[in-house]
Amino acid sequence: MGKLVAIILSAIFVMCCGSQVMSDAIDHRYKAGDLVPLYANKVGPFSNPSETYCYFNLPFCSPDYVKEKKETLGEVLNGDCLVNAPYKLEFRIDKDFQVACRKNLTREEVIQFRTAIKRDYYFQMYYDDLPIWGFLGKIDRLGTAVPNDRFFLLMHLHFDIFFNKDRVIEVSVRMDHTHVVDLTEDRELHVEFIYNVNWKETKISFEKRMEKYLQSSFLPHHLYIHRSAIMNSCITVLILTGCFVTFYMRVLKKDFMEHTYNEVLTDDQDEKGWKYILGDVFQYPNHRSLIAAVLGSGTQLFILTILIMILGLVGVFYPYNRGNLLMALVFIYAITSGIAGYSSTTFYHQLEGTNWVRNLLFAGCLFSGPLLFTFCVLQTVAISYKANAALPFGTILVLVLLLTFVAFPLLVLGGILGKNSQTEFQAPCHTTKCPRDIPPLPWYRGVLPQMALAGILPFAVVYTELYYIFASVWGHRIYTIYSILFVVFIVLLIATALVTVALTYFQLAAEDHQWWWRFWAGHGWASTVGRGSLDNRPYIGMAMKKVCLKLCFGLNGARLDAFNWSFLCGGSTGLYIFGYCFYYYYARTGMHGFLQTSFFFGYMACICYGFFLMLGTVGFIASLLFVRHIYGSIKCD
Question: Which of 14, 177, 199, 206 is deepest in the core (most CB within 10 A)?
């Protein structure tokens, strides 16, 4: 295991060292008259961040020679399409009414520009690695009816650039709303693209030039909301922790004292609650390969999240170059595949499983399988729209090679190390051969009510922060306050663990020993063949579920394991987050169109599924430690 960790950390270090954004002018130092690189990136509807197209997809006048910038993997994943712009901005050279180009627009090109203006298109450029945004045109509303609207293309750009000695510090662009051309009618037009350049000196140092963008993303009142949300979350968790400690001291301690080591029971019925099922709680669950794969995949995603936050805290992610984040996600996920293999096969070996190869395949495909399927579907949608989100064949080939020659070998290596580990499952109590029947439980102790109850508090902890994260991922802001995000994540983990442990105790107190898995069988609630059924209520759709589990996981037997109780309670927060996606999409944004809708809900479904696996693993491990502790504290014959 030590060698595996060393390999993973070394690979992450190399990746971080090479992930910084580099300009064409590597040192960002220029002399008067030097041509500073200006790249036109993309255009698209402002409300649809995933629907972007190359800048020259619109009929702008292009330079004599269009040169594409060599892009990193992260920039390609981010949908960037950097080419040299038709505007020449030499260092410290002012220009007034400089003509970039003249062009005759055909009727089709006029319609194309008008459609873009109607959809509120914006453009993005990079000047010395500093982002620039602007809108293509404006709409004059002359009446309530749409035919009365007039569409104007903005032709005059004002570049305001600040410098400190030999470095560019800040750049912005203003659109001249008086120099426009009317595109309302379908006719040929002669247009003239003009720009001004105004250089100003500033005392801001080069190291602080990105602070402007950080301040524009989070205003002072936003930071106040962040701090207030964190304080409320921490207070909530402290109250929850206090309640748990009080419960432990008053209830569990009392139970421990009643169950003394010298007490000999003459009748099992003298014991009640969680002590009555002493010999049943540590029986190995059915389909151990599936539960081990789930825990292995969840552990990998947990380590991935921690490493991403650490990289954000140390400043690896260059502001307004989200390609670094995407590239880090891809590489770290591939590198941490060994953790998934090791965790899965280790736990599978502890449960005395034999088919460790199938378990390893489960662990490798449990998250990546749905993710790759979603990617293929969305790739097809992006290709049909000819959008930048459609990755080129070369990039797809790189990703396939990365999974084939990095992720899969590390997964196998971790699996071999886990298989050869000598750890055993340490159950503090003896295990009976014939488990007891579970008494009838009220409806509110069912799977769905308990899941709904378990996810409320952890979701409330992260609710406020979710808006800012979504505004960064699905908007035009940049999230840079990783310290706050890290604190919220830790609070989320604590809340998830405490809530899951509490619900697990209530389940055991009701003499329900199926805290590993919740079994849904065709004829009622039971765990294995031969165990009595508590009722004869049919489960609608059981045949379909049996077919799905057979196809996906190869599960056999008259009884089918369907849900992990403690895992579902911990992972239910992911379902709450997915529900929040609908609120955010329809109430907080103006996103529209099939492409944007499919990208938003497709990838958010994968992200929420990842949270489900990760937080479910946290909840399961917390419940496992808790159950071991309470049953290890009483007499075990």
Answer: 199
DSSP 208: G
Placement of tokens 């983990």 in the chain: 493
Kindly state the tokens that stand for 198.
């105004």
Would you mind telling me the total number of residues written for the chain in this entry? Answer: 637
- Hey, which residues does 7 pair with through a beta bridge? none
Rounded-to-integer distance, Cα 51 and Cα 381, Å: 11
Within 10 A of 415 (CB to CB), how many other CB atoms are there?
28
Number of H helices, E strands in the chain: 18, 14
Long-range contact set of residues 404-408: C-beta below 8 Å, sequence gap at least 24: 406/334, 406/335, 406/337, 407/333, 407/334, 407/335, 407/337, 407/364, 407/368, 408/337, 408/364
Distance CA 419, CA 354 (A): 10
Q: Hey, is 611 helix, strand or coil?
A: helix
Is residue 105 within a helix (H) or strand (E), and if so which, with residue range?
Answer: strand 95-105
Round to whole Å and give the CA distance between 517 and 504. Answer: 12
Closest C-alpha to 25, from 169, 132, 129: 129
- 432 SS3 class: coil
Tokens of 579: 């529900």
Yes or no: say if 157 and 147 are a contact pair by the CB < 8 Å rule: no
Q: Which amino acid is at 493?
A: L
**CA distance linking residue 56 with residue 83, whole number of Å:** 9
pLDDT at 289: 85
Q: Are 406 and 398 in contact (CB under 8 A)?
A: no
Q: Rounded CA gap, 410 and 11, in Å?
A: 12
> What pLDDT does residue 221 have?
53
Distance between CA 212 and CA 208 in Å, rounded? 8
Q: Report the predicted TM-score, pTM, of the whole model to 2 decimal places.
A: 0.84
Q: Is the Cβ–Cβ distance between 436 and 277 less than 8 Å?
A: yes
Q: Is 56 left (phi over 0), alpha (psi -120 to 50) or beta?
A: alpha
Write down the pLDDT at residue 188.
92
Q: How far apart are CA 130 and CA 38, in angstroms?
A: 9
Q: What are phi and psi of 59, to 5 degrees?
A: -75, 50
3-state SS track over 504-569: HHHHHHCCCCCCCCEECECCECCCCCCCCCCCCCCCCCHHHHHHHHHHHHCCCCCCCEEECHHHHH
**Beta-strand relationship, 156-164 and 167-175:** antiparallel
Q: What's the token pair of residue 5?
A: 């960790």
Average pLDDT of the segment spanning 457-474 = 89
Instruction: Write down the mean pLDDT value for the chain.
Output: 81
Spatial separation of the C-alpha atoms in residues 58 and 183, rounded to whole Å: 14
Residue 629 sits at the vertex; the CA angle it makes with 626 and 632, to the nearest 5 degrees, is 145
Give residue 288's pLDDT: 81
Q: In angstroms, rounded to a whole number, what is the distance separating the alpha carbons of residues 283 and 55?
A: 62
Structural domain spans, the chain: 26-208, 287-421, 447-520+548-636
| pLDDT tens profile 400-427 | 999 999 999 999 999 999 888 767 777 6
Q: Is 605 helix (H, G, I), strand (E, B) or coil?
A: helix
